[in-house]
Structure formats: structure tokens, C-alpha cells
Specification:
Blueprint: E1 5-14, H1 19-28, E2 35-39, E3 56-63, H2 65-79, E4 85-94
Antiparallel strand pairs: 1-3, 1-4, 2-3
Length: 107
């Protein structure tokens, strides 16, 4: 069996209108990739009556511990108070851990 590398999975569930802003935060923290999935459900703000702002999204990225903490901190500072957005970090073990190494920051 191939060895696995311990990493963190950052999961963000948010209103569709925040998609590009969340992706910008991931990129700012040099994530090497992410997955976006349409999702629905019910939370403390209840079920939304329409898809006017677009569907709810789940955005996931595998990152280092430090990167995961920085992403969640920035999301909480910018969006937790006024938007329907939740985020959590999960321990994961991945094959090809080097694939998820942080990209050097641009500029």
C-alpha cells in the first residue's frame, strides 16, 4: 500500500454569490486547487425561498494545517456576521501529498 500524507480538508458551504470571493481567498493563500459542488439543505437561517442569488455551494480544498487555519480565519472575519457561510476543517490522509503543497505566492 502506498503511504499517505496527513493534510487538512477545508470545507466551505456558502451562498452562491460568495463563490468568487471564497475562491479568491483560497488563491490568496496559495491553494493548489479546489472543488465546487452545488448543494442544498437547511441551517439556522432556514431554507432559502429562491435561487435568486444562485445555488448554495460547497467549496473544498486540501491544504496544510497553517493554510487551513488562515483560510478559516479570513472567512470568519469577512463573512460570518452578514452572510450564510459556514466552514470547517477536517483531518484527512491523502495519496500524493506533494500534489497539495502550497504554491508560491504570486507577485
Amino acid at each position: 500500500m502506498k503511504s499517505t500524507t496527513p493534510m487538512k480538508l477545508v470545507t466551505v458551504v456558502t451562498e452562491g454569490l460568495l463563490k468568487e470571493k471564497v475562491i479568491a481567498i483560497l488563491r490568496r493563500h496559495s491553494c493548489t486547487g479546489f472543488t465546487v459542488t452545488r448543494t442544498d439543505g437547511e441551517g439556522s437561517r432556514g431554507v432559502r425561498a429562491s435561487d435568486w442569488e444562485g445555488p448554495n455551494l460547497k467549496i473544498e480544498s486540501i491544504v496544510s494545517v497553517e493554510t487551513g487555519e488562515a483560510i478559516v480565519e479570513e472567512l470568519s472575519e469577512k463573512y460570518f456576521e452578514n452572510y450564510s457561510l459556514i466552514a470547517w476543517i477536517t483531518d484527512v490522509r491523502v495519496l500524493r501529498g506533494e500534489k497539495f503543497a502550497t504554491k508560491p505566492k504570486e507577485g
